[in-house]
Structure to design on (1865 residues):
């Protein structure tokens, strides 16, 4: 039981650190693409410390604070559901469907916080965030169904063991892997599908009234989301991690691909995002499903 | 300048020449100045717009002749056919500072008239939007009048940072204040 | 004098008391006490849920040579608990300030109390049915009782009640046809007799039985082709009435379907019965109807601008989950479907009551005229929040458990398209319930709502009790799942082995105790991170970033109209209201026929008409 | 048992005396009328008591049956016989003139005769007498609309009677006799061919005029729309049922072949569809009830068209239920005349009237414990039991009619009970109307608790009515029965299909009363 | 640099143990290395900022990012002439920014009026209305100058000398006086500066004065809607 307690504390901590590294990688990739030098190595850490070091910050009421707590807390809880090398947390007690729902709790938390800010930009941002969720979750769910059907289980730990034995999911269901990656692009909310943090149109959407520790928490949440997206994709398709090195390499690679794509695209409108995410990944997913189920 | 427009030009010159109240001076081939007294101006503009294809009112200028105690209003109208500009000058007395609006002839006049009203205090009857638009924060006299001394106002309302030369001493201590020595600045002018 | 008689007597007594003393608001608490007695009587029949033998009712008639008798089984007990609970909550809500307010507004409190009392009593009769005859008697009584409850609204409500009546009587006639067909086949109305004859019935007869039964009961459940009446009828019924109707009334259709289709014909027959030229079987047909019933009403709810209508449309959508779970038939899915009945009853009633509380204070349920009420009605906000988390099926609440069971079963059975339809329904629900929460409670508080206060205790208590139930059954779903195992055994479905936290499975189970625990642990750590950042100063809603503009109270900048503009650009054109067109064309056809029939009676020359008819009759006879 | 003839003779006599007495004092004429009706009721009640389950044939004037007129008394006949004076008493024309009293008495006499008579020509005579009396009563109302309606009704009824007479003459030509029992013995071999069927068709349409059968009920909305509630109740409730009873007698005794029943089924279905849909569009309350009664009568015809005992049970149940409900509804409509829209909020003031209206509407639509539901259930069970396509269509029509009926009845109710009452309520109902209506309500609710005995009583009555051999035996004695048996055997070889179908022998088959091949039926059931 | 008479006692100064000192040092280091610049172009000088941010001069290597709303930003760049109408918006934005916040006056117009010194419509000295940390002179300074200015500011922050935001609270009456002189007595912003000074312990002797008294007569301070159960 004690080992479990340690795991439950350690996994979010690891997630935070790796998440910050992924944030740095994201900004470095952006800089390199724009032929810039890019931020120093510890920049994300500086940002977080600066935000939490702010001496005056404003809040719009209790629900604003509770919303942020739910957002960050939701992700912290979600980390313990995904098995990482050496630590499984409660991954063997729950399964991937619970994990999908755990990923929805933070967006509800942020929605509450943004709603309470009584700022039209925030409300428009949240309505677009939920539209985006509707867009990327359908292909993502098809992928989850396909992989659960192929592995015969929805328990992530068993999925990793299956892949260790039978080879990576990527090779057994390439179409589903493509659909998963496309959905990941929408899930991370970066450039082509960055409809809810559109700085030019709606002043960073939900984050319009977030300053100081609120924005700091949201940056922590963004690092968690990058980390979760990376390792979930790795667990599903790239055979999870036996040792931390290859696990992290795979995770960083997985996150790097959408980032490079992201910084070469302008921002799509909401209906274009729905159109593209409901057309190509869903088609690929269904095709992949057909292959998986009838082979 | 095709044939039709040249005839129009000639016709207009003869007409204006006959009217003795209108003093015509042709500055350049496509610039003409007309001087007319205040109450005849609207009819002149109507003539120019209706008959002489001067359909575009480019601007209304106001000049404050404080010595003669008059405002001079200049209506610049432009004709696309004859490709030429006519500036109709007129004088109105400075004191009541009221004049007739030409909004019914030229819609842009509303904006110019409001501008002049804000800056010079000339009230144009009949102009639609005669309230403050640019100088909402200003409740002093119309600032562009010559009797308004901007500098005096500034010295009265604003104060200055006193100029302390010791700023320069710090900069020179750091090597002239310019981080990059001049000879390295322009790559093109490098000798090597 | 068995417990069931006691229950019937108590409910009849409540109806009588409501009829006599319903008008005076002070009678409310007494009536609530009577409902409490009913709930206790149902609770005393608890052993039924753990395998005790059925509790018979003493009155048994024989009419025209056919026996008529009633008994309570585990299935009926499960539905009876929900009915009694919903009735108690609704009566409790109505007994206090809301009742006085309704009477002052000119509403007829006596009619509402009587109608509310009639509903559970007729439902206990339906739930106790033992053969086709008693089932039909109970079914008609329930249909008419809910008609009376819908009439209580007056004005617009009556129009919707009449539309409901036409649908309900149509459904009842389908059930009567099925009943009489089974009588023609077996000579009696006993379930057993039909069950015995079923193996050697031809496919055609079986199909007609299945279509008639599922169609007839489907009308009440609001399955897709017959769902147009439910949204209006449930939304226009006054507050507690809509809470009761939304919670349990349309689930009686599911009970009857379970009793007849699954109890008598049996899941095996349904699985064997295949639709010609298609790979689908009967139970898959039901599952597909359920899938469409999940998706279409949910996205119609998304466009509603009235809170009550949005919730009513969601009621129809969630009905689809129940049928899909039961139609799939294996242990997990049927347990999920049945538990969803319980879950939906709890949070739907709480949501309707919360919306009624908002209407009680602000006078309107229009989502474009509200906003920012969280600071004025925090407890109602809490109830609505818990309710919508349950309705959307997110982890801490019980809605998640039943949806998880259904999803897990769909993955086991390998039904990808049904799985996607269910998930699309869930996502649609999440998207539309946030619009409900945001437009009412978050955002800019209007000037005229600044004096709004929280609703009085008599309305808050039932709402908070229901929310507590939603959370507790979410935390420990095993409590409800145990009841369902006996029900599954009784219906002959595969039986589930639940633990207190959910389902123990090697390949991906669910343990809600751990899930909720981890979630709240996460919130704790999140709070620690958050508090590390020092104190924040709460500012007024006008101290907001608006691009350098100075905000004033008169300017209304709360974004609520056309809330999902981006989404609507994409799926807007897909709303064509084809079912509405279908229903209108049927009504127009009947009207045309009626005009023709009326024309017959305007003919002036009777004699010539008579001659023509006799010639026709003779020709017909000679042929 | 000969005193039963008094039930017909006395009202006839009183009918002719009333105008003379009426000239001197109207009250005396009224009391005479009531007295006669009371006596008739007494006579019939004693007859029924003495009958105790058996059947009796009375030869009028002592002449032996094949020649003389005979009255056939069995449970069904006496039930309807008793209903006639009782209904006449309850629905007595209150402000009527002595002429109306006389006409009512004549109507009562002829109606009782219709119920009891066993001779086909005698039935025709009484039928004509009833028609004449009802013309007088309708025209008696005095308003232009009533007289117009009466005239059109007269024309239609006269044409109908001509057809009825033609039918009877055909029967007489083919069989040489007019006595029902004798006809029953000769029918199997004389009237089975299309000509026999044509005779039945003619008689059906002739009697259909009064029984509101589909093609010939053009007069119904006009007459019931323009006549006083009491008379409309009498005509719709009672007289139409008697016409149907006669048709059933003829069908059961003389024309057992299936085509006859199918013709009645088809016309009945058309009547339901036309009646219910027209009622759905009707804008006036009385006309809506008129159309509704057409629909209900359609259901009665459909119910009776089911061969054998089950059909008669269902038909009787629906007929009796309609006999009870329709007059009461017409009484309620007495005060709420005019267009339905104008009645908005009219029912709010009078809770008893509205309550009764709701009760009757619920029973018509078939709310389970109420008798309306059991009648509809029996009808649908009878129809579904047949298994033929047409029967299923009939069942479907009956059920669809219920949906339409529920729609318009409760639409009217919602208008009556609408809250925004802008309508000045037209004053309370007349006392007696309300009493009669609530009496009908009480009987309706009472029957809910006495369902079991009522069911068995109906079953016995139906068995007796369906028992052709019993009828012949009581009227012509035993030897005639033997002749009927041999003729039956010859038919069974000719029409094997018409015997029981190959379905497993369920209780429904036994109920049909098909002679299971044995020449003589058992003892009287 | 203009030496402002700033007293350094504040929330952080009272700590004595070395660990707190190291922690303060670290926080100030991070604060200096992560400056978020408000993307608000008040005047003509703003055209120099994009080149400073993009690939040639790349301010991100200093840890500086453009941010959209004042709630998220640390530096308010007042670029170019400050017209009276724009000054109102600048003050509102300044008050909406979370502290520690810094103001940089780019272009000489913010120093002493620049080339618009004669104009009746421009505010000549920015420092009268807002506490300014740093000036970058030049009639639109080149990106190199802007970057070097930023480095200067980072140095000030690291050494803890960039505390001008506290001065706004401590000498609020002085600033408010100047603002009222310009905008008239009825001038008010939705932010309750006196309340904030009270809450953050920066309420010095010069915070309240005759100008704030005038303000309190005019302004009805916006009381935030508290959660209310009854």
């Amino acid at each position: 039981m004690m080992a479990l307690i340690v795991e439950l504390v350690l996994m979010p901590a690891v997630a935070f650190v790796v998440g910050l590294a992924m944030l740095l990688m994201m900004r470095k990739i952006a800089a390199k693409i724009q032929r810039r030098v890019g931020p120093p190595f510890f920049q994300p850490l500086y940002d977080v410390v600066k935000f939490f070091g702010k001496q005056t910050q404003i809040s719009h009421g209790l629900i604003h604070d509770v919303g942020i707590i739910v957002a960050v807390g939701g992700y912290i809880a979600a980390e313990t559901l995904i098995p990482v090398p050496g630590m499984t947390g409660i991954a063997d007690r729950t399964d991937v469907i619970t994990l999908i729902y755990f990923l929805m709790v933070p967006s509800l938390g942020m929605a509450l916080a943004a709603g309470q800010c009584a700022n039209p930009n925030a409300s428009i941002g949240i309505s677009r965030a939920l539209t985006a969720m509707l867009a990327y979750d359908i292909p993502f769910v098809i992928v989850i169904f396909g992989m659960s059907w192929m592995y015969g289980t929805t328990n992530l730990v068993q999925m990793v063991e299956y892949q260790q034995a039978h080879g990576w999911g990527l090779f057994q269901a390439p179409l589903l892997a493509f659909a998963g990656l496309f959905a990941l692009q929408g899930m991370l909310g970066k450039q082509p599908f960055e409809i809810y943090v559109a700085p030019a149109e709606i002043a960073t959407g939900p984050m319009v009234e977030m300053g100081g520790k609120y924005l700091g928490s949201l940056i922590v949440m963004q690092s968690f989301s990058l980390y979760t997206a990376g390792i979930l994709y790795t667990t599903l398709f790239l055979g999870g991690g036996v040792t931390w090195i290859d696990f992290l390499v795979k995770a960083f690679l997985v996150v790097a691909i959408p980032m490079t794509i992201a910084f070469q695209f302008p921002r799509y409108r909401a209906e274009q995002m729905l159109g593209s995410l409901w057309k190509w990944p869903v088609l690929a997913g269904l095709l992949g499903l057909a292959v998986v189920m009838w082979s | 300048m095709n044939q039709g427009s040249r005839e129009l030009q000639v016709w207009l010159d003869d007409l204006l020449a006959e009217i003795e109240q209108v003093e015509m001076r042709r500055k350049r081939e496509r610039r003409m100045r007309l001087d007319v007294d205040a109450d005849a101006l609207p009819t002149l503009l109507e003539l120019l717009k209706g008959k002489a294809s001067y359909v575009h009112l480019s601007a209304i200028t106001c000049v404050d002749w404080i010595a003669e105690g008059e405002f001079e209003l200049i209506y610049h109208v432009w004709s696309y056919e004859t490709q030429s500009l006519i500036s109709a000058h007129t004088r109105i007395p400075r004191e009541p500072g009221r004049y007739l609006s030409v909004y019914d002839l030229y819609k842009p006049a509303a904006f110019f008239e409001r501008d002049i009203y804000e800056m010079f205090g000339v009230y144009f009857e009949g102009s639609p939007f005669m309230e403050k638009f640019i100088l909402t924060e200003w409740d002093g006299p119309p600032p562009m009048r010559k009797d308004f001394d901007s500098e005096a106002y500034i010295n009265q309302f604003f104060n200055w940072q006193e100029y302390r030369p010791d700023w320069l001493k710090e900069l020179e201590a750091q090597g002239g204040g310019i981080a990059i020595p001049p000879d390295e600045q322009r790559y093109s002018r490098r000798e090597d | 004098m068995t417990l069931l008689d006691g229950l019937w007597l108590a409910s009849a007594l409540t109806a009588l008391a409501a009829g006599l003393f319903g008008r005076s608001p002070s009678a409310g608490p007494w009536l609530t006490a009577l409902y409490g007695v009913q709930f206790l009587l149902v609770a005393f029949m608890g052993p039924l849920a753990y395998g005790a033998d059925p509790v018979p009712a003493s009155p048994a008639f024989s009419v025209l040579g056919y026996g008529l008798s009633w008994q309570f089984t585990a299935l009926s007990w499960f539905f009876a608990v929900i009915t009694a609970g919903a009735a108690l909550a609704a009566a409790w809500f109505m007994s206090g300030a809301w009742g006085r307010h309704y009477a002052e507004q000119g509403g007829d409190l006596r009619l509402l109390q009587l109608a509310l009392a009639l509903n559970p009593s007729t439902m206990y009769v339906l739930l106790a049915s033992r053969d086709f005859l008693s089932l039909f008697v109970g079914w008609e009584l329930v249909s008419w009782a809910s008609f009376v409850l819908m009439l209580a609204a007056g004005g617009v409500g009556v129009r919707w009640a009449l539309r409901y009546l036409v649908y309900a009587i149509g459904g009842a006639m389908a059930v009567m046809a099925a009943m009489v067909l089974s009588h023609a086949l077996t000579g009696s109305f006993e379930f057993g007799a039909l069950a015995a004859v079923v193996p050697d019935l031809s496919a055609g007869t079986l199909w007609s039985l299945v279509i008639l039964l599922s169609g007839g009961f489907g009308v009440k459940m609001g399955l897709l082709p017959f769902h147009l009446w439910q949204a209006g009828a449930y939304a226009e019924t006054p507050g507690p009435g809509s809470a009761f109707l939304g919670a349990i009334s349309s689930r009686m259709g599911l009970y009857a379907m379970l009793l007849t289709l699954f109890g008598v014909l049996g899941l095996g027959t349904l699985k064997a019965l295949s639709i010609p030229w298609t790979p689908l079987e009967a139970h898959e047909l039901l599952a597909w109807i359920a899938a469409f019933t999940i998706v279409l009403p949910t996205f119609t709810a998304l466009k509603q601008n009235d809170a009550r209508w949005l919730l009513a449309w969601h009621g129809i959508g969630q009905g689809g989950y129940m049928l899909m779970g039961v139609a799939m038939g294996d242990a997990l899915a049927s347990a999920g479907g049945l538990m969803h009945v319980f879950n939906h009853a709890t949070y739907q009633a709480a949501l309707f009551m919360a919306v009624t509380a908002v209407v009680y204070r602000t006078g309107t349920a229009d989502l474009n005229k509200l906003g920012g009420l969280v600071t004025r009605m925090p407890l109602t906000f809490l109830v609505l929040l818990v309710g919508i988390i349950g309705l959307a099926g997110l982890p801490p609440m019980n809605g998640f458990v039943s949806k998880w069971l259904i999803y897990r079963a769909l993955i086991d059975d390998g039904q990808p398209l049904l799985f996607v339809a269910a998930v699309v329904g869930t996502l649609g629900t999440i998207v539309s319930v946030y619009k409900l929460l945001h437009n009412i409670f978050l955002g800019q508080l209007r000037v005229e709502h600044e004096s709004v206060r929280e609703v009085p205790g008599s309305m808050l208590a039932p709402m908070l009790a229901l929310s507590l139930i939603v959370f507790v059954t979410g935390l420990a779903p095993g409590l409800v799942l145990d009841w369902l195992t006996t029900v599954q055994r009784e219906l002959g479905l595969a039986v589930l082995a639940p633990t207190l936290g959910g389902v123990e499975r090697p390949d991906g189970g669910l343990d809600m105790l751990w899930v909720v625990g981890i979630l709240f642990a996460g919130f704790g750590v999140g709070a620690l991170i958050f508090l590390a950042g020092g104190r924040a100063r709460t500012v007024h809603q006008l101290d907001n970033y608006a691009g350098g503009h100075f905000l004033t109270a008169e300017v209304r900048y709360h974004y609520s109209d056309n809330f999902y503009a981006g989404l609507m650009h994409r799926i807007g054109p897909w709303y064509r209201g084809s079912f509405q067109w279908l229903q209108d064309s049927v009504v127009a056809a009947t009207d045309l026929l009626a005009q023709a029939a009326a024309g017959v009676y305007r003919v002036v020359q009777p004699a010539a008409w008579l001659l023509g008819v006799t010639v026709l009759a003779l020709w017909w006879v000679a042929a | 048992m000969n005193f039963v003839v008094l039930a017909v003779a006395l009202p006839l006599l009183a009918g002719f005396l009333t105008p003379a007495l009426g000239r001197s004092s109207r009250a005396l004429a009224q009391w005479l009328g009531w007295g006669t009706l009371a006596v008739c009721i007494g006579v019939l009640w004693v007859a029924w008591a003495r009958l105790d389950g058996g059947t009796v044939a009375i030869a009028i004037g002592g002449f032996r049956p094949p020649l003389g007129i005979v009255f056939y008394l069995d449970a069904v006949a006496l039930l309807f016989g008793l209903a006639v004076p009782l209904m006449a008493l309850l629905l007595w024309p209150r402000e009527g003139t002595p002429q109306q009293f006389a006409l009512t008495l004549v109507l009562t006499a002829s109606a009782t005769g219709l119920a009891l008579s066993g001779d086909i020509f005698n039935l025709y005579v009484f039928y004509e007498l009833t028609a004449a009396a009802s013309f007088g009563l309708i025209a008696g109302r005095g308003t232009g609309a009533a007289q117009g309606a009466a005239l059109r009704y007269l024309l239609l009824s006269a044409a109908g009677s001509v057809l009825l007479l033609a039918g009877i003459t055909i029967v007489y030509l083919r069989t040489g006799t007019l006595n029902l029992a004798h006809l029953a013995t000769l029918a199997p071999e004389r009237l089975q061919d299309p000509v026999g069927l044509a005779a039945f068709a003619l008689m059906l349409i002739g009697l259909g005029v009064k029984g509101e059968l589909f093609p010939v009920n053009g007069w119904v909305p006009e007459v019931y729309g323009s006549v006083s509630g009491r008379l409309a109740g009498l005509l719709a409730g009672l007289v139409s049922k008697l016409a149907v009873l006669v048709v059933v007698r003829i069908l059961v005794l003389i024309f057992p072949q299936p085509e006859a029943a199918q013709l009645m089924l088809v016309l009945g279905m058309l009547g339901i569809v036309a009646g219910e849909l027209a009622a759905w569009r009707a804008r006036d309350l009385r006309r809506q009830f008129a159309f509704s009664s057409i629909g209900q009568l359609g259901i009665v015809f459909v119910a009776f068209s089911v061969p054998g005992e089950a059909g008669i049970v269902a038909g009787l149940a629906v007929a009796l239920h309609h006999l009870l409900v329709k007059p009461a509804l017409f009484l309620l409509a007495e005060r709420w005349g005019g267009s339905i829209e104008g009645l908005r909020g009219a029912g709010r003031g009078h809770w008893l009237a509205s309550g009764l209206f709701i009760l009757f509407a619920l029973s018509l639509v078939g709310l389970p414990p109420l008798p309306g539901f059991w009648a509809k259930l029996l009808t649908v069970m009878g129809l579904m039991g047949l298994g033929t396509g047409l029967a299923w269509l009939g069942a479907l029509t009956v059920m669809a009619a219920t949906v339409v009926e529920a729609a318009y009845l409760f639409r009217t109710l919602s208008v009556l009970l609408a809250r925004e009452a802008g309508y000045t309520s037209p004053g309370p109902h007349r006392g007696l109307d309300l009493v009669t209506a609530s009496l009908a309500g009480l009987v309706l609710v009472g029957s809910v608790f006495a369902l079991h005995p009522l069911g068995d009583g109906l079953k016995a009555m139906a068995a007796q009515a369906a028992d052709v051999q019993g009828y012949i035996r009581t009227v012509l004695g035993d030897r005639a029965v033997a002749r009927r048996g041999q003729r039956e055997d010859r038919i069974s070889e000719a029409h094997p299909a018409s015997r029981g179908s190959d379905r497993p022998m369920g209780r429904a088959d036994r109920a049909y009363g098909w002679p299971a091949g044995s020449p003589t039926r058992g003892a009287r059931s | 640099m203009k030496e402002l008479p700033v007293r350094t006692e504040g929330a952080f100064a009272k700590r004595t143990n070395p660990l707190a000192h190291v922690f303060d040092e670290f926080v100030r280091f991070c604060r200096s290395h992560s400056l978020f610049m408000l993307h608000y172009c008040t005047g003509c000088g703003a055209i120099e900022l994009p080149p400073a941010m993009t690939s040639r001069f790349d301010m991100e290597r200093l840890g500086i990012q453009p941010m959209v709303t004042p709630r998220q930003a640390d530096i308010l760049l007042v670029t170019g002439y400050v017209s009276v109408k724009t000054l109102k918006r600048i003050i509102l934005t300044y008050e909406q920014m979370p502290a520690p916040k810094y103001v940089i006056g780019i272009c000489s117009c913010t120093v002493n009026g620049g080339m618009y010194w004669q104009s009746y419509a421009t505010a000549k000295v920015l420092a009268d209305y807002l506490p300014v940390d740093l000036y970058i002179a030049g009639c639109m300074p080149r990106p190199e100058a802007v970057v070097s200015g930023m480095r200067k500011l980072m140095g000030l922050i690291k050494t803890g000398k960039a505390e001008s935001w506290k001065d706004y609270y401590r000498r609020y009456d002085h600033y408010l006086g100047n603002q009222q002189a310009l905008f008239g007595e009825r001038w008010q912003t939705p932010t309750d500066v006196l309340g904030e000074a009270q809450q953050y312990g920066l309420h010095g002797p010069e915070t309240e004065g005759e100008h704030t008294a005038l303000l309190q007569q005019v302004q009805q301070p916006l009381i935030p809607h508290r959660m209310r159960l009854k």
